[in-house]
Amino acid sequence: MAFKSMLSVLTNLELADTVLAQGVALARGADAHYDAFCLGVDRSQTGYYYAGANAMILQETLNRAKTESEELEEKAIEVLRASGVRWGAETGVAQIADLGRHVAAHARFADLVILPKPYGKDIGAEVEPTIEAALFEGQAPVLVVPENTTPITAPKRITIGWNESSEALVAVRAAMPFLQAADSVRVVVIDPPTHGPHRSDPGGLLSQFLSRHGVRVEIDVLSKTLPRVSDVLMRHAKDTEADMVVMGAYGHSRFREAILGGATRNMLEQADIPVFMAH
Q1: Could you tell me the pTM of the whole model?
Q2: Which of 46, 92, 100, 101 is nearest to 65 (CA)?
Q3: Is there a contact between 9 and 115 (Cβ–Cβ < 8 Å)?
Q4: 147 near 18, Cβ under 8 Å?
Q5: Model confidence pLDDT, tens digit, residues 229-238
Q6: What is the CB neighbour count within 10 angstroms for residue 157?
Q7: For 41-92, what is each residue's pLDDT tens digit?
Q8: Which of 39, 74, 222, 240 is the most buried (most CB within 10 A)?
Q9: pLDDT computed for residue 31 by the predictor
Q10: What is the rounded CA–CA span in Å between residue 147 and residue 274?
Q11: Counting Cβ atoms within 10 Å, is residue 12 exposed (0-12), middle (13-18) or buried (19+)?
């Protein structure tokens, strides 16, 4: 299925330019409709207010969030009116604890959700749960865009992180329009299992599946020569000048990844090219 409906959830004015530029570039290349959901987030935790806090404090935080949403909408309209693509812009306000419901309501009807990188200096606490809401509750693929990256209209060189997981296969299927249009797709298998039905041909069945869809694919089998799998995958992406990485998201629980770390979190922490994920 082609990407014909794209969405960005904007929560931070400083991150909006990169995300909007990437969304416009992809929408233009795919002749798609692009929506900007400008969400003002009340980042306060109501349960931690001191005893006796009254409704005026709650109203003040919500008013601040509403002002942020209006500033984001103004920025989105300014960019989208000049873009030449079909677009829409909508505002909303949510408390951070209830953010997922609002994001999912929009993401579930999008073919692709384009969001900023969730980790780094001055990144708000709401960006990570926004990505998770789009992936889990919205059941949509997400393209995570690092700050200050050059927009790509159609990635020409794509790296797939393949570990035979259900999440990775869902991501590959969702990314098919990108994969079919790419000049080169490299399936990267890191430390494949020495036992099992695919030990003699790691990535072979995926390569066969992709080639039948017209994808120009190669397989790279690598050893884990760095401490983390994400380190090896990102280094390979840089060495091959990849425009995008495709991978499954949250093979472990979100709680486990948040506490102990995992490939998804590690990749997003260090990514300097767009990362396409699905769960």
Answers
A1: 0.91
A2: 92
A3: yes
A4: yes
A5: 899 999 999 9
A6: 16
A7: 988 765 555 555 566 666 787 889 999 999 999 999 999 999 999 999 999 9
A8: 39
A9: 96
A10: 10
A11: middle
| Among candidate residues 28, 166, 265, the one with its CA nearest the CA of residue 275 | 265
Q: Which residues contact 184 (CB under 8 A, 6 or more apart)?
A: 156, 157, 158, 216, 218, 240
- Mean pLDDT for 158-186 is 96
User: H-type helices in the chain, by residue range?
Assistant: 13-30, 55-81, 99-107, 127-135, 166-174, 176-181, 204-211, 229-239, 254-260, 263-270
DSSP string, 68-85: HHHHHHHHHHHHHHTT-S
- DSSP single-letter state for residue 191: S
pLDDT per residue as tens digits for the range 141-168: 999 999 989 999 999 999 999 999 999 9
What are the beta bridge partners of residue 41? 94
CA–CA distance, 279 with 133 (Å, rounded to integer): 11
The DSSP output letter for 89 is: E
163, two tokens? 């570990």
CB 123: neighbour CB atoms within 10 A? 16
Instruction: Show the beta-strand stretches assigned E in 16-119.
Output: 33-42, 86-95, 112-116
Token couple for 216 = 């120009």
